[in-house]
Amino acid sequence: MKVDIxxxxxxxxxxxxxxxxxxxxxxxxxxxxxxxANAGHSLVFGSIKHVLHLIPSGIFHPDKVNIIGNxxxxxxxxxxxxxQDLRNLGVEPTQNLFISNKTNLILPTHRLLDAxxxxxxxxxxxxxxxxxxxxxxxxxxxxxxxxxxxIFTADFEEKFQQLTHTHLELLHLYQSDKIDQLEKxxxxxxxALATLKEFTFIDCEYEVYQYLKAGKRILAExxxxxxxxxxxxxxxxxxSSNTIAAGALTGLGFAPQHTGKVLGIAKxxxxxxxxxxxxxxxxxxxxxLLREKGAEFxxxxxxxxxxxxxxxxxLKYAVxxxxxxxxxxTKADVLSYFDTINVCTSYKVGGQITQRIPADNNAVIxxxxxxxxxxxxxxxxxxSYDQFPAALKDYIAFIEKETDVKIAIISVGPDxxxxxxx
Length: 422
Ligand code: GDP
Ligand code: IMO
Ligand code: MG
Prior knowledge:
It is a single chain. This protein is an alpha/beta fold. It contains eleven helices and 20 strands. The chain has helices spanning 16-23, 76-88, 108-121, 133-141, 156-173, 182-196, 204-213, 245-252, 285-293, 312-322, 390-403; strands at 3-8, 29-32, 41-45, 48-52, 65-68, 73-74, 97-100, 104-105, 200-202, 218-221, 259-267, 270-272, 306-308, 310-311, 326-330, 340-349, 352-354, 365-373, 407-411, 419-421. A hairpin with a 7-residue loop joins strand 19 (407-411) and strand 20 (419-421). Helix 2 (76-88) crosses helix 6 (182-196), helix 3 packs across helix 4 and helix 3 runs parallel beside helix 5. Bound molecules: guanosine-5'-diphosphate, 6-O-phosphoryl inosine monophosphate and magnesium ion. 6-O-phosphoryl inosine monophosphate (IMO) is lined by residues 8, 11-13, 38-41, 126-129, 131, 133-134, 223-225, 228, 239, 273-274, 299.
């Protein structure tokens, strides 16, 4: 038995939440392997639209095990909010949500540091979601952070105070204007631990191994997207974790030979929220139409997403680095409004045509487009591939030919039901 890995192939918000929820019936265990509440994974079924941030997108299936892996960073305050939101919908997750005891914690001062560091960067800011992600991972690799298992040690409060004290020195140095909020934030944080303690903490790596030995099917759920990977994205305009397939192995603790399929989710066009290179970005009416028809506003921060045409240079890079075995194309319905659809098939950099993403973020990239025919037809009610207009089939075939990977699912609307498996 293997662990299948599902992840985003662009800059996040590809529709991972929707797809995980859709395919959860095929699995026994759904496990988040990195990121934190910077993620916003939307699920729509029936009359419910729900956004998950930290909790795996299999949580609406009560018979499935959901795991928050060691690679995740967890803020007890946002965790409590999410649990409360689920309870308000009648979902009680204490019996089927398990958390690795090696999961790192996000402290209130991590959030303040995130804000202070971004403010200090000024024009060069990354556009962080300000959830404390960067500072928490910094403390993880710096070997300073607190983990779930520390909560149960006698000197936990002392360790908390020590780390907070170090952060406070930095916050003073950065002239943070929010230090006066800290006492209240800390009180809230400690009170939120009570909700966290209602859950069962596990040795994630042992559990995953036991599940595999017992023949259980596991799906690893990624957050963010390949182009936000801390190593392979356009650094520093990235998040602070490995969002690529390799991150699933370290984020849950399984061996390379236990990797199964790699399911890569790509939007039929591109969006990005936050700063950094985006070669196919559109600043015109076409971009606005994509944003409007695709409802491209951040699920976590509400920020308008930057929009542009599909970038096959970037997509092929993502397919390569993740070893994608199956592609899943989402939001095809959003392209129904265009007479013609552009697809970037190469870049021109310094007068040269290239298939590579330049390592230098300042390189001027001129995207080279192939123009395909639009289908100009509402595809949201369609239920099978056979019903697809010819131009959409051509669009799908073009992507498959360029990436050399089959598109296994095409999503034609936000609802779980609006998904066509081939
Ligand atoms: P994630 O972070 O990858 O889970 O994606 P988000 O939830 O942040 O953003 C995807 C948005 O697109 C959400 O609002 C989804 O409900 C919506 N969505 C997902 N698939 C489709 C689709 O095929 N068509 C349309 N129109 N919306 C979709
Ligand atoms: P999901 O899982 C889109 C972006 C932020 C910012 C950069 C760093 O919903 O796809 P961070 O808060 O990690 O310090 O922000 O990464 N970002 C995302 N963009 N979707 C996400 O998650 C994102 N999580 C972080 O906008 O540019
Ligand atoms: Mg999202």
